[in-house]
Design goal:
The structure holds two protein chains of two kinds.
Chain A (H helix, E strand, L loop, with lengths): L1 H11 L14 H13 L1 H18 L1 H4 L31 H37 L1 H16 L2 H12 L3 H28 L2 H8 L4 H38 L10 H10 L6 H28 L6
Helix pairs in contact in A: 1-9, 2-12, 3-5, 3-12, 5-6, 5-8, 5-10, 5-12, 6-8, 7-8, 8-10, 9-10, 10-11, 10-12, 11-12
Chain B lengths: L1 H27 L5 H6 L5 H11 L5 H14 L12 H36 L4 H15 L2 H15 L14 H35 L2 H8 L4 H38 L5 H11 L2 H29 L1 H5 L2
Classes of the chains: A mainly alpha, B mainly alpha.
């Protein structure tokens, strides 16, 4: 097909421009996807909830009625009241304020672990699909092994090896996300690799790195972004699980998982201590699931509607 | 079928070796010395040296690797660095509780999720479909441990029907079952969502295949089309879901075991992780690896048994 090749060559010869023709979906298709997204009431609810959570995370100091880590031993496990909407915990800290502050860790870990794991995983999948041969076999074999383990167990073991803390928590969750993105990026790279624009770029002497990052990547990044939106929910769920287990961000920082775990001991005396942060995890994961589902329904033409 | 099975089994062995090697390396190349990590920063140099000796860390790496694999093959997993107890004994005491919990949750998830999915897919865009979609969205977002806590509050604390924590002995089936109900239901119901979602889209995909149109054109009654053709071919991909599903449940069992204070390998792994007991971590991970590989092998074999195309594919 000489036309497509010449188009690709013409595109390549313009410095600083990404490939135009085959790279981006036509405008009408993207507009249709946006329309499909906004018509779906559930995805709009997800978007709204996610925006609300982001605001809560950013404005926690303004919204919280109390200091989340200030202890008041005389007010331990106080019942809900006008001053403490959901009562206080075993150190007399305001549960409502701690739940509000917990949004920060949850969203921070959720977003950054997906970003880290998504970028590394996509690159690995891209390299495996583009290079082929031994590189591909090695990368995909390790990815398959990682994929075989439940994400929570992978997270646990990585935390055991690296130790606790926010940074290691993000790395641990990212590691269980990496193989999903590698797998997902691998398949379309294989088919993109066969296309004429890659041959054209190779003929022009572009390096493998340039072809992978400037030409193939834009063609698969749309699907990867949709995948990322779906994985934020899972990342937040894993974070809650790891904090619940006692391997999250160290106390006294407020995290939902830690609160649920601490509250479990006082489940009879102060049930809200565990239940409110548990509900917060549920709402947050639900919000990102709705958002991710809406995006993938709208942007992925292969998914059954 | 026999040659397909042999080929699959032959493929599972290198996979298992790769996994076990990764587990071995993880523990050996962890930043910081496992002995120091286990004993804490205040331990004396002598104590750390003794611990290193006990863990076999002073031997050459290949020798350690060989004795790790050899011990695994003989069921000898060494001793815990913290309690000094033999790991194999602890592991085999807790493993049945985890397997019991996972299997019970698997059954609950399938028994509720599959009918829901089929019903939803058959009445697409009618109320059963909406119900199914809401159930799976809520279920997928509901942390299993949160559901467990809610059920403890209702059934154990309010109604006093069931015990809150622990696990019943296996020689007392009634007590065992009473302890199993709440954890299995809380884990299983989250699985319902997962099964319902995947099975629904599988059935929908089958419904659009050409052969369904063909049998409909042939004049079969709708119920025959549904039961004899659609569901039958949808069940094959659902089998592969079983494998993924049981491994996911094995992972979620960790927190469920913690909520209900059930003795199990999940709780053992968490305990070892918190104490940085690398010997126990390595052993539990090896057992999990063996289970994962076995489950995947079983799924592959079942798949090949049900779908002849798979076993003849090269």
């Amino acid at each position: 097909m000489p036309d497509e090749t010449s188009l690709a060559v013409a595109t390549l010869s313009r410095p600083g421009m990404g490939p135009v023709g085959p790279a981006r979906p036509p405008w009408s298709r993207r507009r249709a996807a946006v329309r499909a997204f906004t018509r779906n009431r559930l995805s709009l609810i997800g978007l709204g909830l996610a925006a609300l959570l982001a605001i809560v995370a950013l404005a926690a100091p303004l919204l919280a009625p109390d200091d989340p880590i200030k202890q008041a031993v005389t007010e331990r496990l106080a019942a809900p009241s006008g001053q403490h909407w959901f009562g206080t915990d075993n150190f007399g800290r305001d549960i409502f304020s701690r739940v509000l502050y917990g949004t920060r860790i949850s969203l921070l870990v959720g977003l950054s672990s997906v970003l880290l794991g998504g970028v590394i995983g996509s690159l690995l999948g891209l390299i495996a699909g583009f290079r082929g041969g031994w590189t591909e076999r090695c990368i995909m074999q390790v990815m398959d092994v990682l994929l075989a383990f439940p994400d929570l167990i992978t997270g646990l073991v990585v935390m055991a090896v690296l130790g606790g803390g926010l940074r290691n928590l993000i790395i641990a969750i990212a590691i269980s996300i990496v193989p999903r993105f590698a797998r997902f990026a691998h398949a379309p790279t294989l088919s993109e690799r066969q296309k004429d624009y890659v041959t054209a770029a190779e003929a022009l002497g572009a390096s493998d790195r340039r072809i992978m990052l400037r030409h193939v990547r834009p063609n698969i990044s749309g699907e990867l972004l949709v995948l990322a939106s779906l994985w934020i929910a899972t990342a937040i769920r894993i974070e809650a699980n790891l904090s619940f287990v006692g391997l999250g961000v160290a106390p006294p920082t407020a995290t939902w998982g830690q609160m649920i775990r601490d509250g479990l001991v006082y489940i009879q005396a102060a049930p809200l201590f565990s239940l409110v942060p548990g509900l917060a995890v549920f709402v947050t994961v639900l919000a990102f699931n709705l958002l991710g589902d809406g995006l993938s329904d709208a942007f992925d033409p292969r998914r059954p509607q | 079928m026999a040659s397909y099975a042999l080929r699959r089994i032959a493929l599972a062995i290198p996979t298992l070796l790769v996994v076990l090697t990764i587990v071995f390396c993880l523990v050996r190349f962890a930043p910081g010395d496992p002995a120091t990590a286990a004993l804490g920063p205040d331990a004396s140099a002598d104590a750390i040296a003794a611990a290193r000796q006990r863990m076999g860390l002073t031997e050459p790496l290949l020798r350690q690797y060989a004795s790790y694999l050899g011990g695994l093959a003989h069921g000898d997993l060494g001793r815990s660095l913290i309690s000094g107890r033999p790991i194999a004994a602890d592991l085999f005491a807790s493993l049945p509780h985890t397997i019991e919990l996972t299997l019970a949750a698997l059954l609950i998830g399938l028994a509720t999720g599959l009918p829901l999915a089929l019903w939803a897919a058959m009445r697409r865009n009618e109320w059963p479909d909406y119900l199914g979609r809401i159930v799976s969205l809520v279920g997928l977002s509901f942390p299993a441990f949160h559901l467990g806590i809610l059920m403890i509050l209702l059934f154990s604390i309010k109604l006093h029907w069931l015990p809150i924590t622990g696990a019943g002995a296996f020689d007392d089936p009634v007590d065992n079952l009473r302890h199993l109900v709440l954890p299995a239901v809380s884990l299983g119901l989250v699985g319902t969502a997962y099964v319902a979602r995947v099975a629904r889209s599988t059935v929908l995909k089958v419904k659009e295949e050409d052969f369904i149109r063909a049998v409909r054109a042939k004049g079969l009654r709708p119920s025959q089309v549904t039961y004899r053709h659609t569901l039958r071919s949808a069940l094959i991909p659902v089998t592969s879901l079983l494998g993924v599903f049981s491994i996911t449940l094995l992972g979620s069992a960790v927190t469920t075991e913690l909520v209900f204070a059930r003795p199990g390998i999940g709780r053992m792994l968490v305990q070892a992780t918190l104490e940085r007991d690398y010997n126990v971590i390595q052993s539990v991970m090896s057992v999990v690896a063996v289970m994962v590989v076995l489950v995947n092998l079983g799924t592959d074999l079942a798949y090949g048994f049900l779908d002849p195309r798979v076993r003849h594919a090269r």
